[in-house]
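Newbie here. two chains, one complex. Structure please?
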Amino acid sequence: MSHDHDHEHTEPPGELELRVKALESLLVEKGLVNPQTLNTIIETYEHRVGPRNGAQVVARAWSDDEFRTALLEDGAATVATLGFTGRQGEHLTVVENTPAVHNLVVCTLCSCYPWTLLGLPPVWYKSAPYRARAVSEPRSVLAEFGTRLADDTEIRVWDSTSEMRYLVLPMRPEGTAGWSLEDLQQLVTRNSMIGVEQIATPDQRAAERAP
Amino acid sequence: MSKPTPIANDLEEPVFTEPWQAQAFALALALQQEGLIAPGEWTEALAAAIKRAQAKGDPDLGDSYYEHWLCALEELVRLKEISDSEEMAQRVEAWRRSYLATPHGSPVELIADDS
């Protein structure tokens, strides 16, 4: 039997997709979910939320001391002033990196993550090795991401939950005095806001790009 | 001590690698928006699904994440008696039959159970 010439039926999708279709059709039938709501959710997470939101918050904190102070005091309320509100009003704690303290975020049990600011987590964030090793050996995890800290830098690991999410406020790189918010935002990476990376200075970036 | 499993650092990856993942994701959020599942209940169910998969030998490297997600969702739907295993299994078969009965190229609609 050739698939190319068999138009009499449609090949069923894989088992996982069938299970999702089964669940979705049952929940819609029972009036518990609305298909339009599902589409809106998917559209939002595929296209509208992502690390650019968090980068906007970080750039603002670097440029505006009052905002930075407020952000560190009450993360959720302060990011809400930029229009970023959590789905369930979960709390947000912003933790600031300094030369003395480096912060790293993990969810040891599942994958809690500040979706509103960073979008959905990368695959490695959801993996068992990261969830375990971020706690047991954060320094070597950081090294795998190319992040080497001074020996006397303290590493603080924050374990996210459904009630509390964390965002790292990375250190502003040297050589960016007077930069606009837009230019600063471009420097801020997703990984730096999880805490596995530091932000490269403009000179370092230029050197990386050189052949 | 055994060598630690390295953490793959993929910078550019799609949000969902297959459409069913997006659908499963949205279903869990929609049930929370409707107040049928509390956020704490959800993370508990997801963490339990991950533990069960690990116990069955899943290396749990992040690529099976939405399978855990789907298992958690089915488990909560059973616990809350929104549906049961039998109804869900029947519905899977109904969808399979619907695909097989739909000419290639036509949109697949669920054909009602002939029970």
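Moderator note: The mean pLDDT of chain B is 88. Residues 98 and 110 of chain B are 6 Å apart (CA to CA). Thread marked as resolved.
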